[in-house]
Amino acid sequence: MKPLVCSILFILFSVPIFAQQTDLPHYLTPAEQTLYGTYQAPVSPEAIPTPPPGPVRAMAEWEELHGLLLTWTFQPNILRQIVDAAQEEGMVYIVCSDSNSVKSYLSNGGVPLYNIEFMIEPFNSIWSRDYGPWHVYAEDSDSLYVIDWVYNRPRPLDDLIPTAMALRRSLPIYEATVDPYRLVHTGGNFMVDGFGTAFSSKLILNENPGKSEEMINDIVQAYLGINRYIKMDNLPYDVIHHIDMHMKLLDEETLLVGEYPPGVADGPQIEANLNYILENFKTAYGRDFQVVRIPMPPDAFGRYPNT
Q1: How many domains, the chain?
Q2: 239 Cβ partners below 8 Å, 6+ apart?
Q3: 3-state class (DSSP) for residue 131
Q4: For the stretch 6-33, what's the b/e string if a residue is b when 16 or more beta carbons lie within 10 angstroms of its beta carbon?
């Protein structure tokens, strides 16, 4: 069975403060900051609140996929380009409020409407990379499970996407949403190599203050089959502390890493994090990681966060 990286929004209840908001930013808004400490994430009655039967394996992003999820809100021109490219390789699942308007926009841009499935569902934001489900293989890649945790934003409509996807695909869903397994996390701060190694910033520790690092490691191992969990210091100028803002795995042995001019902005911490990896860890094949650098550009006025 191929892995499925897609999801659908399913609302079990509504919270008025979020009901009409579909363009929330990637960071916490002032209103969300006041709710963050007391927010109770929705718990799905269909979900299993314990780890899946092991062993399981979280697949890497470069493995063959069945589909791609995106939520249609702002930036329609960029979304259209993504759909146009992705539908040639697999299914594209579009969460939206009006499929007819999306179809018209795609068609007017010359995008054929095949390999596309529209899902009319409520949502809070566009950031499906952060709130969408994770999937793991079990029984030597013969079975596929949906994995969910507590989304690190108080956005209940987004937070329920994994359950809806599991129901839609008739897949079992295992949630790390109830103690002792409760884990606050986000997809943008989690990348895996497909061989049991994962990378995050230390945001994962900050957002789970009631759990030790060992406890967090145990949860991630139980739900996702991660045996080596590498965590790096947060960047001083990166507001959301997601690792994918400056680093991505291109394959099992290659890291794509952002690069600033010497001494500028988050550059020194990025270099320190990269050196930490290179000096302390090997690839799944026991070799040194290869590194590809990509320039981190300034804003339209030529400024960096600290200049």
Answers
A1: 2
A2: 27
A3: helix
A4: bbbbbeeeeeeebeeebebebebeeebe
Q: Label residue 35 exposed, middle or buried (CB < 10 Å: 0-12, 13-18, 19+).
A: middle
Domain membership of residue 61 as a residue range? 16-39+49-232
Reported residue count of the chain is 307
Predicted confidence (pLDDT) per residue in 16-40, tens digit: 334 445 789 999 999 999 988 888 8
Q: For the whole model, what pTM was predicted? A: 0.88
Find the radius of gyration of the CA atoms of the chain. Answer: 19
Residue 222, pLDDT > 70, answer: yes
CA triple 179-225-245, angle to 5 deg: 85
The verdict on 214 and 253 lying in the same domain is no
Residue-wise pLDDT tens digits, 60-75: 999 988 888 899 998 9
Query: Which residue carries 């409760």 as its tokens?
Result: 182
Tokens of 179: 């103690």
Cβ atoms 43, 177 nearer than 8 A: yes
Asked if the bond preceding 76 is cis, omega within 30° of 0, the reply is: no
Token pair belonging to 68 = 């791609």
If asked whether residues 217 and 88 sit together in one domain, one would say yes
> What are the CA-CA distances from residue 247 to residues 13, 131, 262 (Å)?
36, 19, 17
